[in-house]
Amino acid sequence: MDKRESRNPVESPKSRQRADNEKMTRCPNESIPKRAMAVFTFLITILGAAAAQTPPAPPTPSPTPPAATPAFPPTVSTALDQVALTGADRTDVNLRFVRTLFMPSVAGKVQSVLIFEMTPVEMKVEPVVPPVPPAPPAPATPQGDTAQPAPSVPPVPPAPITVNTFYRLTKADANGAYLPYDDYIVVYQEPVDQTAGAASYTVSLTLDPGSYKLLMAVSDEKLIKMATVRAGLEVPNLMSEKGELVTTPVMFTNSVKMLDAAAVERSARVHKNEFYFANLAIQPKFDNTFAAGESKELLYFVLGAKPEQTERGPGVNVEISYAVKKGSESVIKYDKKAMVLPAGFPMINHPLPLEAKDKTLTPGAYSLSIEIEDKVGGKKLKTEVPIEIK
Question: Domain count of the chain?
Fold first, then answer.
């Protein structure tokens, strides 16, 4: 089975319906023209509303009444209840929550990319091999005949390692009380020859903005070995109600690649070292730690800029200034970048070397300052991203 595929072991009409309704949108910008043209049709309707700060129309209700949410296996549900009660996590195998990334989605929702570390080889279940009866004696070879060699049997490849992953979310109401929001079950399989110790994995869940508490568990396929972890999630509202200029959280990436249409994610799946956004496979840098002079690509959306008509259709005209700061002092300043982005998918994606001709960063803590000006609407935004040089 392909390692990118996963399944829900408790597949119900509602879970299938929810998976279909949770299609996530994403897009590249004009800094990569081939990608932009490829995803324009895919995303213009979805993100066009976000760029103008007008919430899109809600999806058409399904005529099929929803079924009950798939229940976790009793073993897992009991373990998570115990964790919630005592605050003591289960640690049979390695599991560590790393961080969350956020991308725009439909109807004001947010694609929330959960990044975690686990070690699938720890959850390998050795198959039970039945005893093989002794082979019958070979018939005697007639005198003068040449014995024929036994036919060779190709080796059977080892079965992939199956990891069950479980996500239980509660969401804060207006009074700060955390109420049940949803449960998710995603099964991941990894070929044995691709497993070597701990690695980073992702899963994307489409959530409403707000404050959440996450209880997560991973287990082997027989639910014997298990680990749990807890985390708080603050899902931002990417649709500013005041018409302000906003960005998605800024991330650094190792690579951004286009996917074949058949590979586009239509339900939650676990991925190793990357996540899917519309028809892109994005490999993020999981922390903001860099070597001096290292160059990575920045990736984020600019939302809320006033669109104007351009030769290529509606676009937003922005000017962006970058600087690396040590405290309040700018140690590297970059030339301003003027960009006209498609209004339907105003995504920034370009390299940013962490050095200058006359300046190399010494080890320590810094911040990347980003100033954005909407040249048509006159709006301005300033944000900072902490980084560290090793």
Answer: 1
